[in-house]
Each structure stands twice: as C-alpha cells, then as structure tokens.
Amino acid sequence: MKYSLVAAALVAGSFSAIADDSSDKVWTTSAELGAITTSGNTVGTSITGKIDAKQELQQWSNQYIFSAFFKEDEKTDDDSGEKVTERSAERYLISGKAAYKLDNEFDKLFVFGSYTDDKFGAYLKYTTVAVGYGTRIYNTEDKSLDVEIGPGYFSGERSTGETENGMIVRGAAAFKWAISESASFGQTLSVEYGEDNTRTIAETSLLAKINGSLQMKAAFLVQNDSDVPADKKKTDTQTSLTLVYSF
Question: What is the largest CA-CA distance in the chain?
C-alpha cells in the first residue's frame, strides 16, 4: 500500500510527459554528494547524497527526488572491550510531483507523493500522497517565493511497530534568492498536518558556483514530528557540505 501510493504520483508525472504534445522537453538535473570521515578520539563516517530531476514541458512541470544519508560510528563494546563499528543513521527518501500549468503564469494543480525509509527514526516508514494548488506569491528579478497547499493522506510505521494512517493537510513553500551570478540562497518548508502527527521539514541552503556545472552547497536540514515514542526525540537535524553537479 505504501509503495503503491508513491508509485501513483510518480506514474502520474510519467503519463503527463507522454500526454504533452510539446517536443521541447527540458530536463534540469542535479546530483550532490558529501562525505565526512573522522579519526583519533572520535571515529566515524557519514555520507549524504541527492538527485533532483526537474522536467519542464509545455503544460506540465514535473520533479523527482531521491536522497540518502548514512552514518557509522566506532564504539567500544561493553562486554569485550573491543572496537566495533555500528551504523547510527540510515535514511532514504523518494518523492515525485506532477504539476499541471493553468492559464495564469505560475498557477498549477499538482499531485505529490513521497516515501521515507528511516531505520533509526521515530517513524521507520512514512508515506504521503497529496493533491492541491500552487502559485508564486512573490517574484522579482532575483527573488521568488512559491507556495502550495492541498489535502492528502499519510501512512506511517512507528519505531514501536505501530502503524498509523489518515487524512492530512499539506502546505509547502520554496524561497529562492540569486545573491550574485555565483551564489544563491534557498529556503524550503513543508508541513503535513494530521490528527496523529504533524511532520515539518525545513532546509536552508547556500550554493556557491565553482565552475559552469559544479557548485559547493552548505545546508541545514530540520525534521520535526509532533508525536513520537518516549525513547525518540521530536527533532532531527542534519548539517551538510556537498558538491553539486548540474546537467
């Protein structure tokens, strides 16, 4: 059920591309990767990666995202006293959005789906499907603010093994600021409000161009769940420094 909900949103985007008569299909794809390894008193390795593919057609605007995060730490076994390596974080996210362009510029109707697999999170699995309306409420030469809102459905499996599902209201916003020809600032926010849980995800990022296709990205990601098991924290954060290649 969880996989099929996300698949429905992804397939919707694929069908929209087939249905569009335009031959000028434009893809914009970025791939980012970052890794941190520590040694000495603290030993560990963390790796983060993301692929973001956008497709602009005459009548449709589609986006597909896949991201992953791993973290391993070296610890001392209490019984044997030996050094052992343990994975302390492992998270995958896949999402897809197909937006149908309306007559007014920037106005769109969309269908969105996402699936998160987090082996150490408050929710081990989290699936969201939503539909709604999006538009741009602020637009200048160097800044823009896009917002969207609509009803949806979520299904989740807690770390305790309990399952939840129900209706939600999903809202999202994306702010972009072209600081200069070589630097840009971005802020994204999504809120999925439901009776069982409200999930809020925000990312602040700063990109600096190295050359025509390569950028350096510094980002701070915050994810908050309003209702979590007693042994889990409500907020997870991730600070990253990655290389981004666009093509």
Answer: 68
User: What is the tally of structural domains in the chain?
Assistant: 1
The encoded tokens of residue 186 equal 């971005």
In this structure, what CATH number is given to the domain that contains residue 71?
2.40.160.40
Residues of the domain holding 72: 2-246
Q: What angle do CA 97, 162, 117 make, to 5 degrees?
A: 35
What whole-number distance in Å separates Cα of residue 80 and Cα of residue 82?
5
- How far apart (Å, rounded) are the C-alpha atoms in residues 216 and 34? 10
Could you tell me which residue, 178 or 9, shows the higher pLDDT? 178
Give tens-digit pLDDT for 195-235.
989 999 999 999 999 998 999 999 999 999 999 988 899 99
Question: At residue 196, what is the residue type?
Answer: D
Which tokens in the block code for residue 143? 């800044």
Cβ burial of 68 (10 Å; 0-12, 13-18, 19+) is middle
